[in-house]
Design a protein that fits this description.
The protein is an alpha+beta fold. The chain is 23% helix and 34% strand. The protein folds into two domains: 4-196, Gyrase A, domain 2, CATH 3.30.1360; 247-320, Aminomethyltransferase beta-barrel domains (Elongation Factor Tu (Ef-tu), domain 3, Beta Barrel), CATH 2.40.30.110. The chain has helices at 4-12, 32-37, 83-95, 121-129, 170-179, 187-197, 212-215, 218-221, 232-240; strands at 15-18, 22-28, 51-58, 64-72, 77-82, 103-106, 111-117, 142-145, 148-152, 160-166, 183-185, 248-255, 266-269, 272-283, 288-296, 305-308, 311-318. Strands 8-9-10-7-1-11 form a six-stranded mixed beta sheet. Strands 12-15-14-13-16-17 form a six-stranded antiparallel β-barrel.
């Protein structure tokens, strides 16, 4: 359940989230970076120890199989993907290995992920985990110590970290975080913050029909200077022949009031349906419902007037 006290703590101090919806695939072996580099949209081969990237895995038609966070620790790569997709994705990657020195394992049951977000997140994590994190400046920067890998995370628009911890040690770490002053927060509070931050979630705001450019993730997820990857031809064609123009765009939409819309609710411009809602919440920041949804590109500019369930709405901004 959403809690306004938890929301306020996220903006004033630090909160802790159970990130059990995030699965972890572990890649080891000397060829792990070049193997992934040939498959994913971002530059993986250049990642050094302690660095990471956000990327998408596409079909040859440029549609999304998954998005993922790729974290290079120096001894292994951790892929952060949806928990429900981790097993099938690990199997799919494993079947693509031929002579490469790469081992793939779905480690979702072995590693728990705990998120800590808020202005005092760094201080709190360092006190509870005993690992310096102040130097993790860029998103996906990471540090590993014993059974912990701590990753800088900005998904909520706040200072934050995801801690990958051995399942056997997770409860003890949660207790230390609580002792350090963190507030235990719900998944519903996480979703409110995510939607306010305009971060799309695969399986909700993106799916197997989505081209990354439609979701606005290209600046974070796609390298336009790397070599070939699966689906590259489609992305390059849209960027160079279509000047990056896609038929629809994911935007955030502020409603004038009323109930929170549901996933799939239609978005209208006048009498014409121009899109559909993907995520929505009652937003403390805006004092009204806030939604993410796809609209036809001619209606994606900030300030564009729309209606949802008969209520006045406007485009707040494009999602990135």
């Amino acid at each position: 359940m959403f809690s306004l006290d938890q929301y306020r703590a996220a903006h004033a101090a630090a909160v802790m989230f159970d990130r059990s919806s995030l699965g972890t695939i572990v890649l080891t072996g000397a060829d792990r970076a070049t193997f992934l580099h040939a498959l994913l949209t971002n530059d993986i081969a250049s990642l050094s120890a302690g660095k990471g990237a956000y990327a998408a895995y596409l079909t040859p038609q440029g549609r999304m199989i998954s998005d993922m966070r790729v974290v290079e620790t120096g001894t292994r790569m951790l892929l952060g993907v949806g928990r429900d997709d981790a097993g099938a994705l690990a199997d799919r990657l494993d079947k693509l290995i031929f002579s490469e020195d790469v081992q793939v394992k779905d480690a979702s049951a072995d590693l728990n992920v705990i998120g800590v977000h808020g202005p005092s997140a760094a201080e709190t994590v360092q006190r509870a985990a005993g690992v310096p994190v102040a130097d993790l400046a860029a998103e996906y920067d990471n540090v590993t110590s014993d059974s912990l890998t701590i990753v800088r995370d900005a998904a909520l628009g706040l200072p934050g970290f995801d801690i990958h911890v051995a399942a056997r040690d997770a409860n003890a770490l949660r207790a230390r975080l609580l002792d350090a002053g963190v507030v235990d927060a719900s998944g519903e509070t996480y979703e409110v913050l995510r939607i306010e931050a305009g971060r799309p979630r695969f399986g909700v705001d993106m799916n197997a029909d989505t081209i990354p450019l439609e979701a606005g993730i290209e600046d974070r997820a796609i390298s336009f200077t790397k070599g070939c990857y699966v689906g590259q031809e489609v992305i390059v064609r849209v960027m160079h022949r279509g000047h990056g123009r896609v038929a629809r765009r994911l935007v955030s939409i502020v409603l004038s009031g009323g109930p929170v819309p549901a996933h799939g609710d239609a978005i209208f411009a006048g009498e014409r349906q121009v899109g559909a809602i993907t995520s929505a919440t009652a937003s403390p920041k805006h004092g009204s419902p806030l939604a993410l949804g796809y609209v036809q590109r001619d209606y994606a500019a900030p300030g564009t007037g729309l209606t949802v369930n008969g209520l006045q709405a406007r485009v707040h901004e494009a999602v990135d």
